Amino acid sequence: MPDLSYLVASTQRSGSTLLCRALADAGVAGRPEEYFLTGPPEAFPPGWTFWEDGIFARPHGPMDREGYLDLVFRLGTTPNGVFGAKLMWNNVPYVLDKLWELPRFAGLDRAATFRALFPNLHVIRLTRRDRVAQAVSWARAAQDGVWVVSDTEPAAPATEPAYSYELIAALEGLLIEGEHGWPELFADLGTVPLDVVYEDLTDPATYPDTIRSALDHLGVDHTGLAIALPRTRRQADEINRDWVERYRADRARAMQPPPG
């Protein structure tokens, strides 16, 4: 087990891939990924590789849930004993339900479960100031399947996205749930998170200091460490901006009282 664990506590489209890749590139802050996704163990994600005994190996064959957790901690821990993972708020209920099916977590409350799973838990909370832009980004990615764009991951939309007020409103509602739910869980855990804001993370002027503040929060030595350049690119374009304007106008109309 690691000496220190941390969660990037997030909601969709808040820059979590950018942050987690930067922390992984540091080499001293675990290898945070979205290990606790919804779905069966064999669905986590195809093509995973992990460093073991000097070679790259790929997990294969049947694996029970405890075996999967063992794999996750091997994948996500750097040699200095730091483990990292990211978790979206809307996946928390699923994760807890699956953990409570295991004997060692049965009967524990929510906070005790997190403490039992994550030794010496620290939290980095990732938020976005412009919630509408976040909901729009989520609605678009959910349709076209383009979640990450980088030099090695070009945009390849599966379908043409279409504006939907109802979809964006529903996703904004899920974001609001996360904005309230994460702080309640932090209070249960008795932990004070480091708040990282998307707009600061994606600003080239503040990006390096944002990553360093995360490393400081974890208490890892990063003396002399050069912060690697971002490995993802911003995806917002004219379509996003148009949807934001349309949604704000539609929402304003929906909130007006009926005539008479």
Count of distinct structural domains:
1
Strand content: 5-15%
Count of individual helical segments: 9
User: Biggest sheet, open or closed, and with what strands and sense?
Assistant: 4 strands, parallel
Which segments are poorly predicted (pLDDT under 50) over 5 or more consecutive residues? 39-47, 49-58
Q: Which structural class fits the helix and strand makeup?
A: alpha/beta
Taking strands numbered 1, 2, ... along the chain, how are they ordered across the largest sheet? 4-1-5-6
- Listing every helix as H and every strand as E from the N terminus to the C terminus, the arrangement reads EHEEHEHHEHHEHHH
| Mean pLDDT metric | 89
CATH superfamily: P-loop containing nucleotide triphosphate hydrolases
CATH class: Alpha Beta
Shape: globular
CATH topology: Rossmann fold
- CA distance, first residue to last residue: 65 Å
What would you say the CATH architecture is? 3-Layer(aba) Sandwich
Descriptive terms for the model:
260 residues; alpha/beta; Rossmann fold; 4-stranded parallel β-sheet; two-stranded antiparallel ribbon; 43% helix
